[in-house]
Queue: 3 jobs
Job 1
Amino acid sequence: MKKAQSIKDKSPMNESVKSKRDIGEPAISKMPFVPVSVDFDFGFSPCKHAQSKRIIPVGEETVMDKKERRALEREQCALDLYQERWGAFSTLMIYLIEYVQQVSTTTSKSVATNIAESYRVLKNMIVAAQGSSKKKHKGEFSLHFKGKVDSETFSATFPIVDADYVDSYCDYIRAAVAAPRILAETSVQQIVNAWEHFIGRLLGIKYSLDPQSIASNISVTMADILRANDFKGIKELFENKAVKEFLRNSTEDQFNVLKNELDVNFVDMFAGNVLKELKEIVLRRHIIVHCDSIAVDDYCKEIKKLGLPLPKRGEVLLTDISYAIRAWDILYAAGVIIAYMACIKHARDLKSKNLERFANGRLVTTSFEALKHGRLDAVCLILEYANKIKIQSEWSMLAIKINLAIAYKKQGRTREMDAVLNGYNWDFAPKEFMAASLALKGENRKALKVLFEWCGADLERIRCAHEWIVFEDLREDPEFERRMARLRVKGGKELVKVAAPSVNVQGDKATRVNRLTDLFETAVKYAHKG
């Protein structure tokens, strides 16, 4: 039996006009043209993501044996599942970080409003005390604020003649404290839920491709079986039930299942205490939902096992926006790395180069999305892992190094950036990566020269030069726009300039604390003046 001849042509029109001599004169066949696999061509562009399918015709002389056809179907199924589920996770998490950053802004404004109103209440307390000599002082209300440095300390004392003013003031303070906490706790719940749902769906891919791996003690009701339309529906019932049982386990048990089923080695994922932080985040979600953020005995026991700072039993744990953002960084990075490990394992089991190329490309694009949204900690967690493993794709490997160096540079970690860049000879790299490395080193003149040579009159490359974050400093150079204008004219078309994405640093704890301190200082100064 002869094997089919693969025809790989990125032009669908060219496929349709292939001569019978090229594909063989087909006899009457019960099988139509069979899609074999997806070839992801990432080129050398950070903005380009093209997809094409190879079509293998079936005819008298090109009949594929069942084993090979089944392997191709499994490969296509794996590609579809990983593309859909990994993409859905990335999209959802990006929406969530945008939500958390908006929450950060909203809570800052809410706190500022409550502080302004509380100052009005304090002022009324003074007016009431001064305007009525008949009312006896019931006490004094003292406030002490520490400035940005130790020498800046502000104190104010307010005479109390009416307890209602104290109650009103406390209401505003409670609201100022409660609003950020409630919004942060809600954010943490959503982030952990999205992460757990995703790892469950990754395990579902394993069960879909290999139903025999489903535990034998998994059972479904006869009513559910009768409602299924066909055998495929019954198979999905068992898959979903197995995933639900997996999600009921503790985080430690979930990790053991993922290690056994998907070959996920959690020891290789993160350095330091990041993995312990991940487990604590999931525990925190549990006590937020079930224990009103109180450190109950079970929580304290688990924290002690992890070796993290132990809270007091009965203490109300503070969950603020900075905690929610840290939770996003860790769980987004963990989800991306686990998906990559699982996808690579399936690629090797199926001997699929297409699936391996997809995993490498997705690893880059998901980290680049985090970079565009200013989540530098998440970028470092993902790319530090990616930089220490062996990536077969040259484009993916170089993009990982450049994006990691960008994150280090923005964090002010110049030593780590230099270590990444000096570990590779960029003189032999493609020109866009050579230009990127020169830009990161601050050699702008050389970087511009190489970048212009790479762009030429290619409009897609010109667009990349306007969008890739690594060239944002070069875009400030007047020579950049002058030369780019000439290249666009040379290309025969005009390209609308795309603004470089800015790094969003909303939610930074130090910034919020300093802003809040300034507001309190101002309120106390005015109150002290009477």
Job 2
Amino acid sequence: MPASSAFRRFTLRVNSKRAAGAATLLAALAGGSLSIVETLTGSEYLSSIASPSGGHVGTNVELKALSIRGKASGYEIFRQGFYAPFDGGGQHYYLSLSACSPGASGNDFTQVAPNVGTGCWLAASAPEKGYDLRAAGMRAGDVVTYQSANNIALTKILAVGGAIFMPGGAPFRLPCNARFSSSTDISFAGNSADPGTLKLDSGCTLSTDLFVFVDASPSFYGVRIDENNPTATLPRATIAQGAHAADITGLVFENSSIINSSTLTLQIALLATAGHTISYPKIIGSYFQLTPATTQNQCINLSTNNFAGDIRYPVISGNECVGSTILAEGLNPDINNNTLSGYLFGQGIALGAAIGPLPSTRGCRIEGNIFRDTTPGSLDVNVTPPGGIENNCFNSYIANNTCDNLGGPCITTFADETVLVSNKARDVGKGQANYGAHAAYTIIIGSAGTARDASSHVTMIGNVAEQGDTPGAPGCGLVIAPNVAGRIEGYGNQFAGADGSICAPASIATIDPRLSHAPSPASPSRKKSDKP
């Protein structure tokens, strides 16, 4: 029986590189009655012979070129890399016979559209550690030509949101004045021992904020942002979170860093406004570094926009800020065990003004922080020497902080119902000009003109002022402004190490007589053989 009468059609899948040879063989076997109607590329050939969970392609280009003809919904494929196999952009996909959304083109990350046919390759669920950002097309390497691709890919990532893994090693370069904005919750997670790094191009002049999250809640774990020493003409934020149209959960920045920032930088800036709230922001165990200047720059800036919004229960703990300071407003901020050094603007920790129907800043705990090594005699744009803590927080507890080698006082308080416990000031008050600048501690009435910033009901227990290496610093252990009318009380403070113990006008009659005392001289030692 002739071969042509045994069957009408059969399928033989061959690699396209072997198609010509296969055609010759088939023609000879069939007496010229058979022909090849479709050839497959190498990747199509592999996927067509694989089980539904065993196919693979090398790159994103190959995935887009892969034929979906004859494949059922749910067909699985593994893309080995984005630009090249095993470049870190590996990702599992499954086939949907519906077009990609947004639009038929997809985003070449969680959705990859085939070049031919209606369908979409959808990324499988993210691994436990999150989608690898290289799966969106980001390229690691300190290479300028990667900037454009990384700019596009990071924009996709922020639009998708969810959990994103940032690998360590070579940095991911970003172009100058890139602005990444998102209204989607997202979490970047790396390894704090080898953090993933986002690095700006060199020579940038910043004209915009870098990361902006509006009514969204971002998290950063084990991530480094290297701004690569840019310049700026106006204050810019490295990471900004805003509650403008909704109440949101606060940013988390943990075991991460922002380095090589310029002056006029707010490295992390939170803004609550229009009656909305940011709750539970956490900035923990992180490192911030910038070039100091006498104009505004802060590693952390939490603002209620003059009580137009509220920031509740922020935690700022265990961070190190080099060349910059912290500004905090809101309800019950807990700012503890941070180290701030080498700054030229403002005070190491400034707590916002106690104004509004409720005080915008109230119930503060400021404990265990270290302030050190500001430039002696320097003054900022407000003609103020850099000191330790400026307290405008109604009902605050300030304890166990240490100040050493500062131009300004260790602690200046304006706020009512303030308690200062066991703080230690050494070699501070080396600045000039402002009232009380030569003191270790100052109590002053604030400018808001309310009872909450009148410095009434201030209690001081066990605080210490010591002379350092600079003669005359501090000049006074405690300075109390002439217009302070509230009672200043406490006991066990040791101001005798300063040139003066308490410097206060004679008109103040509400100072607790137990407030300061000089330590008693040590009794002579006595040998056992000595007689009484």
Job 3
Amino acid sequence: MTDAAPAPIRRALLSVSDKTGLIDFARALTERGVELVSTGGSAKAIREAAIPVRDVADLTGYPEMMDGRVKTLHPAVHGGLLALRDNPEHVASMAEHWIQPIDLLCVNLYPFEATVAAGADYETCVENIDIGGPAMIRAAAKNHAHVAVVVDVEDYDVVLAAMDANDRVVPADLKRTLAQRAYARTAAYDAAVSTWLAGHVAEEPRRRAVAGTLRQTLRYGENPHQSAAFYVDGSTRPGVATARQLQGKELSYNNINDTDAAYELTAEFDSKDGPACVIIKHANPCGVATGATLAEAYERARQCDPVSAFGGIVSVNQPLDAETAKAVAEIFTEVVIAPSVAPEAAEIFAAKKNLRLLEAGGLPDPTAPGLTWRQVSGGYLIQDRDAGRLTAADLKVVTKRAPTEAELADLLFAWRVAKHVKSNAIVYAKGGATVGVGAGQMSRVDSTRIAASKAKDMARELGLSEPPTVGSSVASDAFFPFADGLITAAEAGATAVIQPGGSIRDEEVIAAADERGLAMVFTGMRHFRH
């Protein structure tokens, strides 16, 4: 009984928290001969605009009660939404109980997500969980053969255009599309509520839900034969999802992934502590540095691996200035992201039409709690975001020689970078800059060798008399399972090592460090990143 002849929209129920576009939509419906029914603040706003509207209490015979918790949960509302117009029994029930059909439902929900994002207390968040709205949306969406349901402001004009083109009838295919959007909205809403409640229970939730809103349909995914899209979850963590694109081509799948990696690593360096720059290629840092100026930090980061920096992602922790923009513009760069961008810097990049320039509005908090998701066949792996941070006080010196003050600063610098390098990760650092990065190898000693080899390339490029790993500090994201990796680092010239410790061969590794005069500290914390 779902193939009934299409009927025109005669009665609409409007009940929205976000009143953007409400008055224009209500007026347009009235001009098309649609009777309006509304609730609470929506009805008040419509009435104040001198648009005829009935209160939902006129339909139900009951006033709103319990602080508005109960107003639409009534057969007069749900019968009007759920009744099959082509089912004689349903039609008879409507007549018997004085139920009037509702042909169009326009509902958006209490601002639960925004309430949580604003840091409201528990009771306030609970009060912003909508009940009547989702119930009406689901009812209308189930009966989409007869009812058009609108949950997004973007669809107001779509529905009006369809009505104009079809003598007030919303076509079946559009109703089906609107129903899908409606169920996706209630699913996302429930996901937000359940995720928030999960943070207030002691055990792992039996079920997890994830939802997002389409931000951008992408040309393709990692490769041209893969379709892709970018969805946002509504959180306010500064980054690629919150950024304003000032110029450049549309972001690609790989751009978004790499820019996120760059900005999350950049956030490890507080802007109050001085300028820092990160250059990312294929989600791994190919150069990270601090400097007296942002331009100096960029130059030092680029020097670490200028070949990989070509076509990379540049991220900075302070407002992007003209001097830095001028230096970045000298080579091909895919994306530049900064907390803010000076007008002079934007003007310099304007000549680079394809360069994507993003203004994020702030830096994310690297210590903030959160979850990361990864799909595997048949399910998801969910874990806390790696918010681990260390200070000098957290380190345990395990060798005869303790690190010098300069070595200690570089050890902590390298450790922050290693957290964002694919495992097995090895990072050599010197003077607040990376001088060699080894990533994603099957053995730790291979990463150590690759990082040292990169440093030799850097020395040739800059005309240095020796590789910059000489006198450097080295970080390993996990323990050295054998002494070979540490010995390779020592042979490259490293003088200090930071690693988690915890191997059954720790004593062997410590002895190798002592034999070579290295200082080594244990963190007791691992930073695997697969």
